[in-house]
Amino acid sequence: MVTKRKVYKKSAPNGKLTTYLGRRDYYDHGTWVDNIDGIIVIDPEYLKNRKVFGIIVVAFRYGREDMDVMGMSFRKDFAVKQMQLYPPLEENKHPLTKLQARLLAKIGSNAVPFHFDLPTTTPDTVCIQPSEGDDGAPCGVDYQVTTYVGQSLDEKIHKRNSVSMSIRKLTYLEDRKEPQPHGEISKEFKFTSGAMKLECSLDKAKYYSGETININVCVDNPTSKKAKKIRLQVLQYADICLYETVQYKNIVAEVETEEGFPIESNTSGFCKVYKIRPILDAAKRRAGLALNGRVKYEDTALAASTEMAGKVNKENLGIIVNYKIKIKMTLGFGSGDMVLEVPFKLAPNRLKGNSLKPEERASEDDKEDYDLVMEEFQRVAVKGFENEVSGGLTSMGE
Predict the structure, then answer these.
(1) Three-state secondary structure along 324-363?
(2) Residue 397 pLDDT > 60
(3) Domain that holds residue 167
(4) Where is each Arrestin C-terminal-like domain found (predicted)?
(5) Are 217 and 211 in contact (CB under 8 A)?
């Protein structure tokens, strides 16, 4: 069976340079990142003595770009990778993927392949949902692959003869065995012996976007008090790390119930499994919610948990995202509440065949037959993305 393979295409305003990419999303697998392989199509007569360069820029935005407080910019751009694409240099050559070979055969002699490696130390694409009425560029981290015509790498990039395509870098949390998240808390009361105990465990440590979380709650109550009801919430914490840490906290899913309650005094062995499903639809209008970028609105999901591997400078991560289950059990009059939080990880949707290493995937691609479908590259029009990229970027390093 022949399948269809989508290829994204975008041309410079003057029509002299066109870039093709086979994907929008690129995954970090911990020890390696998906390669960015594409094709540029050039007009040799237009180039004359100039060259074609490529650059991957990660932008950190921490507020409106027109704001400037005491000389501190609210936007930082890092050049993750930059190289000459045409004429191709020997040190930049890389084996063709099957997709590149198909595109070269289809497009013709003016097509040139390119290849970028992304470092594993670069941050994930994350966007903080702005409040209603805020039409500026949203706070977040985003990536752009830009190809441009110029005399040198450091030359200013002009919009008329450059192509910028937004991509997403996401962390794929490997499906490995980890201890089940667990937490417990106890509370003593005046004028009664014993302590009420609240215990919670999750069925696994990592969940994929849209997956149901099973929360096992157990209560032992040897006291004379009673528990009236329970509320369960999925909390998202987004820490913005620049100069000083600012934290957004959002409820992305919530369940409140009195089923099985009240738990009377001198009761032990109460156990119940509650199901909760954190999805974007339930919370997408909440300001401060961290999303996995805005390349296309229908592709956006809740931001994945940030993996902190080794000693990492938090400022280089931009935004750190964590998730917790919060259990709040309401007790009788004058007894207060019992609150317990249990952390877990949220990952992007399961990958279909893309978890293979590049060299393994190349052999798999040879077995697959598909037709190419060209699609004009479009994105949500958000202020700030249409600006020209200028020279003088800071190198993030490898």
Answers:
(1) EEEEEEEECCCCCEEEEEEEEEEECCCCCCCCCCHHHHHH
(2) no
(3) 3-172+353-376
(4) 192-351
(5) no
Pair 138, 130: CB distance under 8 Å: yes
Residue 256 phi, psi (nearest 5): -130, 130
- CB-based burial of residue 359 (10 Å sphere; 0-12 exposed, 13-18 middle, 19+ buried)? exposed
Query: Which residues, including other chains, have CB under 8 Å from residue 360's CB and lie 6 or more apart?
Result: none
142 is written with which tokens? Answer: 């985003």
Q: Which amino acid is it at 397?
A: G
Q: Are residues 203 and 302 in the same domain?
A: yes
Q: How far is CA 238 from the centre of its chain?
A: 12
Task: Tell me: do 214 and 104 sit in the same domain.
Answer: no
Q: Which phi and psi angles does 363 have, rounded to 5°?
A: -70, -35
Comparing C-alpha atoms, which of 305, 316, 348 is closest to residue 141? 316
Q: Does the global pTM surpass 0.85?
A: no
**Residue from 23, 10, 46, 19 nearest 111 by CA:** 19
Token output for 221: 């109550």
How many CB atoms lie under 10 A from the CB of residue 307?
Answer: 18
Query: Where is average pLDDT lowest: 36-45, 59-68, 259-268, 342-351?
Result: 59-68
CB contact set of 109 (below 8 Å; sequence gap of 6+): none
Say whether both 323 and 357 belong to one domain: no
Q: How many domains does the chain have?
A: 2
Q: How far apart are CA 197 and CA 102, in angstroms?
A: 63
Position 168, amino acid: R
Query: What local confidence, expressed as pLDDT, does residue 1 receive?
Result: 58
Listed in sequence order, the residues at least 6 apart from 43 whose beta carbon sits closer than 8 Å to its beta carbon are 15, 16, 17, 110
